[in-house]
Amino acid sequence: MRADLPVVVLTGGIASGKTQVSEQLAHCGALIIDTDVIARELSAPDQLGYQAIVAHWGDRVLIGSGPNKGHLDRRALREIVFANPDERKTLERLLHPLIMDVVRAQLNEAEGSYPYAVIVIPLYAESPQIMEADAIVVVDVPRKLQLERLMSRDDIDLDLAQHMLDAQASREQRLALATDVIDNTGDIDTLHHKVVELDQQLRNRFKTIPQTLPAQ
Question: Is residue 31's pLDDT more than 90?
């Protein structure tokens, strides 16, 4: 899958800060296509992803009562797939083709309208063949900080957090693929400054627009 628009894959471990980086790149003018957002849309009731998930796992991954009855119970599904690598691979097999169809369509619609496209793919290191890219940006933090942020963000215990990290590619595997690395161990202002610098570097590399740094 390629488009005339330069393609940047943005990846990183869970709770590393990919959302903050992609939001700042959007402010810099990049097109952002987030595969997690697409997956969530596809798994809404009556969508193709939802139908595939329910057909495989049944009612145990659905909310059983309340205003969201019948919606996907994302926490239940997450616990299933992170506890069993085969289940995770099944989920990927069900959703990845649907997700990439949407990515392809959005890229084709956007050609010529942006300096470059950022495709956020959290599990890119696990399946790098899914997308050919002009640059691969890895948002990087140490495992200890990942665990702290993940437990705080998702209100889960250490055991589940460790299982979730262990189910993903290692930090070393992600970094081995990187053309660019964003260290996200500092505060949000430091991160934003690094992302603005990254945007300028990408624009220079792709030679897409006049090279003037945005106002700080």
Answer: yes
